[in-house]
Amino acid sequence: MNSKYSAEEILILAQQIMKDRGNLRDCGTERSMERIVKVFNALTDNHLNEVDGWTFMVVLKLCRERTGSDVDNWVDGAAYMALAAEAVDRQN
Fold first, then answer.
1. Does the pLDDT at position 26 exceed 90?
2. What's the whole-model pTM score?
């Protein structure tokens, strides 16, 4: 990743991307993981929860970063971490 983005700018980008994707794909917010893990669990007999789903996405972005640096990996990873934290808060 080039150093043209500060940590604050990464978080601002992540916030904007969550809003944009939510408007495009969901109901105004990026909150599709609960539905995704329900379908995945039904298909595979697994027992993932929403936090597991977001954690999986963080790991995906970290693995992608190992095969080629792209700021998108870090931006999405930051967003997924925030969404996971939100899900943890709801679970507690």
1. no
2. 0.83
